[in-house]
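Quick one, tokens below:
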């Protein structure tokens, strides 16, 4: 997926990713940091899944039915995705690299957002990201869970507008 994005995207990017998208964004900046002007990570787990979570995801991958949590929009999104898309996305979560050792190399303005009640990517994960990334700004939203863009879209839009207003960082491509 990262290679496809890098081939199709413009030479410079402002990257924003939510959940799995944030994992992809971390891999993009790891592979091509000179292409990234700024980074926003929403509800992000930069590490690997523990063995219990890996087994649960692997079992879900074999299932014909997606069982998301109680958010109605999440149910709608799950119904719209094909079983193959769901399997591919689940496989990406299982095969991903551990981005935690690379966080300190991120040298762009970085917004880290999470819900205070997020049980999938708890605030401790976002705090660890913000602690490791020198140019980061952390916002933990009280009363919100994992689906922050759905639960609090106005706040997310406001945070992203501020993030986009930050001066872009430019890094030269290695020769």
């Amino acid at each position: 997926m990262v290679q496809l994005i890098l081939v199709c995207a413009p030479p410079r990017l402002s990257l924003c990713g939510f959940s799995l998208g944030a994992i992809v964004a971390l891999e993009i900046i790891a592979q091509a940091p000179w292409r990234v002007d700024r980074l926003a990570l929403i509800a992000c787990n930069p590490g690997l899944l523990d063995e219990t979570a890996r087994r649960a995801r692997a079992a879900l991958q074999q299932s014909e039915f997606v069982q998301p949590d109680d958010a109605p929009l999440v149910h709608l999104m799950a119904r719209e995705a094909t079983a193959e898309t769901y399997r591919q996305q689940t496989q990406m979560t299982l095969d991903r690299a551990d981005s935690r050792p690379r966080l300190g190399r991120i040298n762009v303005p970085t917004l880290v957002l999470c819900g205070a009640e997020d049980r999938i990517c708890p605030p401790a994960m976002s705090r660890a990201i913000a602690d490791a990334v020198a140019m980061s700004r952390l916002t933990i939203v009280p009363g919100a869970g994992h689906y922050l863009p759905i639960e609090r879209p106005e706040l997310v839009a406001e945070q992203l507008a501020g993030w986009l207003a930050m001066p872009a960082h430019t890094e030269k491509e290695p020769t």
